[in-house]
Design brief:
Blueprint lengths: L6 H9 L4 H13 L9 E4 L7 E6 L2 E6 L2 H14 L4 H6 L2 H6 L7 H15 L2
Antiparallel strand pairs: 1-2, 2-3
Helix pairs in contact: 2-3, 3-6
Length: about 120
């Protein structure tokens, strides 16, 4: 079952969790419930991720996919942050600061992937 969650809902859930391992489990769960990418979306592979990840766009609607459960969850959070926003609005956002505020403990490789996703979105 796919349950689409807003970024604010995701942020609220993550803010209630203090255990880093439990927080990662929730991130993985977000990815497991990400909606499928519609055929009309244009997808771009994110270079710099530890696993294969794509961010897809259909107008101002954003979707994503990845071959790793954790990366899929990270993609779900990132696309929820920007979903419904125009490229100009995304350029004005502090995506890195917002993601950091979630307190998700990631290794350097995964953080590099997050930065690659943010860089991609800022260049739309």
């Amino acid at each position: 079952m796919v349950i689409t969650m807003s970024y604010d809902e995701m942020k609220n859930i993550l803010s209630m969790i203090t255990d880093p391992a439990e927080k990662l489990e929730v991130v993985i769960d977000f990815g497991a419930h990400m909606p499928n990418v519609p055929d009309s979306a244009i997808c771009s592979e994110i270079v710099g991720c530890a696993s294969r990840a794509e961010i897809c766009r259909d107008g101002n609607r954003f979707y994503g996919r990845a071959d790793s459960a954790l990366v899929r969850g990270i993609v779900a959070i990132i696309v929820a942050m920007v979903d419904g926003k125009t490229p100009a609005q995304i350029k004005e956002m502090d995506l890195a600061g917002e993601f950091a505020s979630l307190g998700i403990k990631l290794g350097m490789g995964r953080l590099g992937g997050v930065n690659s996703m943010i860089s991609f979105l800022k260049k739309l």
